[in-house]
Amino acid sequence: MRVRIPFRTILYLGCLARFAPAQAPSCLSLEGDRILARDLAAAVPALQSVPPATVLGSAPQPGAQRIFHAPELTAIARHYSLTLDNPADVCFAWPMEALAAPRVLESLRAALGQTEARIEIAELSSYLVPRGRLEFSRDRLSAPPEADRNAPVLWRGDVVYGESRRYPVWARVRIAAPCTRVIAAEPLHAGRPIEVRQLRIESATCFPGPEKTASAIEQVAGRNLLRPLAAGSPLRRDWLVQPNDVNRGDPVQVEVLSGGARLAFTGKAESAGHAGATCPARKSFRPASMAQARLSCSPAPTSRRRSRSNNMSSRTSWLSSVLILLLAIAPFSAAAKNEKKKKSGEPSALDRYLQEALKQPAAPVQPSAGSLWSASSRLADVGSDVRAAQVDDLVTIVVNESASAVATGQTKTARSSSAKSQIAALAGKKSAGGAAQNLLDLNSASSLDGQGTTGRTATLTTTLSARVTHVLPNGYLVIEGTKDTQVNSEHQVVTVRGVIRPADLSTGNIINSNQIAQMEIRIDGKGVVNDSIHRPNFLFRLLLGLLPF
Q1: Looking at the structure, do residues 68 and 212 belong to the same domain, yes or no?
Q2: In the structure, what pLDDT confidence band is assigned to residue 98 with cuts at 50, 70 and 90?
Q3: What is the pTM of this model?
Q4: How many domains does the chain have?
């Protein structure tokens, strides 16, 4: 009987016979992150003369192999003047194993640190892991949902192998441990301090993670609840707040410091807070002045007893206290008035120009049907440069402004008048100084010769970068830039706004201030120099006008 063997079977057996000798033998186990000469010498004795600490390669990833083929082994031997005869391939790999539940359970108990806790493994990593030390940490333990505290949770860990490598593993577990909880013995109301008699301690089985339920009466007593709670319900720490020392409307002690002046009085709290915290307060006789002040408040003393000497001293210092309070409050009133003026002022010339320019509709661009071309594209004009042309582009402004004004005036007037009426010796001899100078004799003269000269010079030289804020329908650009400088306690802010033409920009996006239309320049400064030339407050000027010295 003749048996026919298919051609495919013959080809497969031939390939298997050809490549079978090239298959690597069983791999050697790795112990470190690098393959050293001593590891290779254990499989190839002819390489024992190579220095043992020589690094020949890096360890592969878990599950992979590092194979030293015969040509590579021959090259290593030739480098150290050695000879190898038909070397076989050498394979290195990490030893792999499956996780055992008893081993994982032991590691979980060690990480939890509670011997009385009950741990049940519901699911475990099923893949092979490298041989090493199993580690779980408590901070990587997930918390169960509030609806089902007995649901299995995910606990992540690592297998530490080699020198410092880690291979992630996980387990789903149910954990329960004995605990104590604070329970409401009666219905509790929100916003009221909780008393000790309203609480009781209850033993229960809890999840040993970051529990939010209070475990001691000291954590609850004296605090306020944010929500009402029924009797028998556990109290959570995130539902409790510290009661306020100061409530809205309570009298508070207010201290005002202005330079060397100090004033303390009783005010009314505008919001609740704790002693020593920052809270807004008002003084009843001047509420508008204190509305913007932030004061350090503390509860006012409830005792109203004062000694006779304290009453006398308070009466004699009442007037001085009122004056000090006015001096302290005057800057707040002036600032509020200036802010109100600024808000109610008319728009500037540039703002009016923008309102008129933006009302003009831009010329519509009709794209061709089916075309990908967009006229608004940044590279629509291939011949254009990178000068600013769109919103948020940057422009450098060179400010070099100098203004000088001189006005001279002269006034000169003269006036003379005379009136005379006389009856000579009608009633007798004329008398000097009598009978109204003998009826009438008047003479008057007046003259004015005045002149005045006023002069003002201002110079500003600086360079700052500005941003394009608007692109007007006519193609003009609205720019605005601010430069904030602080040197040696001197703070200066320069702001420049205006309208420019794109054609006036240089290739470096630089424009001079004399090419900016509707230009607005504002300079604000604070510091020692500004304080020395600051105009005194109105009360100081009033006192200077009233006092004769």
Answers
A1: no
A2: very high
A3: 0.42
A4: 4
